[in-house]
Model the fold of this input.
Amino acid sequence: MHSVIGILRDEGLADSVEHGISFGPYVARPTSRGKVSIRAPHGYSKPRITHSYLSDPDEGRRLREGLRMAMEIARQPALAEHLKTDLKSSAAIGIAPESDTDEALDDFISRTGFAFYHPSGTCAMGKVVDHELRVQGLANVRVADTSIMPELVTGNTNAPAIMIGERAAAFVEDAAKS
Done:
């Protein structure tokens, strides 16, 4: 569960101009798997990305539980007395679910849910790249970002991305010396 001061819109990318508190339940260890494939056989073609978000029904159940928990927190008198609005008013402008029924929560999730900026696994080590980050079957090609992680970490991916980049640089240096 994430919580932030201010009302978040546009997947948290827009500046918060409204006073309030935003809660963001999420599935920390998703089991749904998407895929990245090639659209056309030239280097400038954009990849085809199939996310498959929440294709595992258990993830939807866990996300609904998280939303219910966030709504319960928002209803607490100690918090509510500091807010200028309530859940009903927030639902009317689209920033909270209409109710805590599965249908209302699923509708809210489908309208407002997003990936939370930490994708990984599309070039998983052991499947696409080897232990030195070389793409299997291609000469002189390495991948040095969080896509090489076979599983999503529960925390932020910034530190692992830096470590992967530093390790890749060391591999390239070592290969140049040989």
Summary: The first helix runs from residue 57 to 74. The CA atoms of residues 16 and 127 lie 41 Å apart. The helical segments are 57-74, 77-80, 87-92, 102-112, 158-177.
